[in-house]
Fold these 2 entries.
Entry 1:
Amino acid sequence: MPTTPPADRNAERGSEALSFPTDFVWGAATASYQIEGAVDEGGRSASIWDTFSHTPGMVVDGDTGDVACDHYHRYREDVALLADLGVSHYRFSLAWPRLQPEGRGALNEAGLDFYVRLVEALLERDITPWVTLYHWDLPQVLEDAGGWPARETAQRFADYSAAVHARLHDRVHAWTTLNEPWVAAFLGYAAGEHAPGVRDPAQALRAAHHLLLGHGLALEAMRAQDPGTSTFGITLNFSPVRSATEDEADVEAARRIDALQNRLFLDPLLRGRYAEDLLEDVADVTDGAHVQEGDLERIAQPLDFLGVNYYFPWTVRAGGRATAPSPWVGSEDVEFVDRGLPTTAMGWEIEPDGLRETLTRLSDEYAAPPLYVTENGAAFDEAPGPDGVVQDANRIAYLDGHFRAAHAARERGADVRGYFVWSLLDNFEWAFGFSRRFGLVHVDYPTQRRTPKASAGWYAQVTRRNGLPAA
Ligand code: IFM
């Protein structure tokens, strides 16, 4: 585990002008439940996030996604905002309960129609749609049938994916199966901080495996019917894990957290196996009987790209008190160390070099397929000033530093082909409700008024010059 002091790791953040290759993808990202609203319209059924957010005490201020950014009705305005940013790509997710309200069977035409209209509006502005099939809004009816801990849900996901792909592949060519299965499995089924709010470590490990299996089955089904025009991938959330000291026990703690956070997904996807050390770490939690013959081959099918979501690194040490509920299944006693670095409004450390480290590791250790940073961005609390302008210098500095880190990774040989800023709009930040604002565009929720922040103007310059000015 690297133990270089943080100051040195950030030292290479230069301030010179940088440029990216001409075909580099600049984009912005959102997700269905966080922006769409219209939860009862067009035949949509309830998702686990509708149930969870309506359960008292689960989301800050009792916020829900019932209206969110009302994107379902205002998507044309939002596509115009994307065009103003000068982005060539828009990453968004499809709401499974809108497309297949019963979690199985024929697609709901009204739900499909919404996404067809959105895709058409994007294509009219020369913006390429980059679709994610699952960003955490499982139909509640499938959770009632066992959710991701049930093997059957993987097959349901593959059927849904194939049905949607069959109807949209003529216009959509970039398909991501899952967004951040770590969050869905471990915050959803172990820590209970996310929907469906379950606190059962063994169920979380089953969920993680079935998410991966669903990815594999969906890839297989979509590829079998694709005319050769699509690319297929998955998005994972990565955090490099550092040990607080070089003591053996702390280094071991960092190994355990790296295994759970990063390798639990990377190894099956890119090496066709779970790592032995991880299996030993969780041996008291599961006997692994849910992993059936043939699963790993299915999961390890070739990827056309790997989506990388990066926000912050972890620093850990051994010997804390076991906390429950915890997402760190089998390693609940590892202690997370606050290094006193500047943080965003999420309390997440700002360390751009963690992105360079992540991209370089994927390239060097995993011989990963082409990489796209599918999410990176920051929550800060700036509000519009008296002149109506949102001066978010913190966000600009954050993005500038991380773009430079991605550039540095490219220089060191990582095949990084694009970058999607999280997020286009302020939106429903899961258990934090509307209290955290990640948007390039400010949203005044009572009026739904959109106001591009200073960072939006700055990002529009980056996309148009295809690079960064000297800072
Ligand atoms: O808002 C989320 C997004 O849905 C998934 N990745 C992290 C973002 C910030 O927490």
Note: The first helix runs from residue 6 to 9.
Entry 2:
Amino acid sequence: MEEQKIIFSGIQPSGTITLGNYIGAVRNWPLVSELGFGIFSVVDMHAITVRNTPADLRARTLSTLAVILASGVDPEKNLVFIQSHVPAHAELAWILNCYTMFGELGRMTQFKDKSKQHADNINAGLFTYPTLMAADILLYNTDLVPVGVDQKQHLELARNIAIRFNGIYGDVFKIPEGHIPQLGAKIMSLSSPDKKMSKSDPNPKSYISITEGKDSIIKKFKSAVTDSDNKIEFSDTKPGISNLLTIYSVMTGCTVQEAVSRFDGRGYGEFKLAVGEAVADGLEPLRQKYEYFMQNKDYLEKIYTESADKACRLSYRMLSKVQKKIGFIKK
Ligand code: ATP
Ligand code: LTN
């Protein structure tokens, strides 16, 4: 029998989940979980690296959890928990900080981007964010980490930290592999197609929230920024149209080539409407399940409490092993 894989991924409650998060990450979680045991976390400790209103953070944490369940992750077979409920994440992150170089963290593009976006709050947490992510992953003997392409650099750092640690203390950590989708690993902003679609973008026209209504989705696609030559083709010089072709292909299950030939000779107006409809219709079942979970807060609480209890037990095993290896005295 094939070995069961352990799958870990996290998502920040830093805004409403976008179509980019969905296509690049969340949509793949139930599929990858089929390979073994999935552990999914709403990473609220990562989210406080930028300022939040406490009530908003609470609401977004719950709604992010509801999106994970609505995407089809089965909480009977997998874990879906809130990161701050499992203290080993913070404890291992501190230890890993001491095995991570200042220069390595300084090279992270997400740190550089977020430092520009939040120039008045370049806090130490923003800098050490990747060591917390490494702790998330390494605590569970993770094999696969399904993420969008923007997380590749963080994942590579997590692997390097694990390899470095194992080089000193023996085989403590399993070295994880990324699981990045072939198509849709980086969905671009609808208003600036040279930037990735991001849930913390201040311009709501730049992203589609996965719980948005059909009219609003179609309106946003109609006003998506493209070039003006009215030719539907996939090319580096046409980032807007290429992004829409990618979105259309993923949401309808066709290849990009099929999408290009389907719209051969048609105008941008017609194409944008078709993309908007494909997205709205494709997201509708998810939206309905999301509404259902949001109306069942007791159920959400049960899932995150039970999952956190199990995650505490699992993560504590790895944390104890690490503490022993580095010379901490067992209490
Ligand atoms: P923020 O705007 O707060 O930086 P974000 O929208 O970039 O957030 P994260 O919570 O950092 O989202 O990421 C959750 C998952 O979604 C990660 O696996 C990430 O790689 C993926 N992801 C984020 N944005 C995109 C995108 N535009 N296209 C594809 N995948 C994405
Ligand atoms: N850093 C990721 C979110 C994240 C994550 C993780 C992803 C935190 N911990 C562990 C995969 C595995 C982000 O910003 N998208």
Note: Residues 5-179+297-326 form a domain with the Rossmann fold fold (CATH 3.40.50.620).
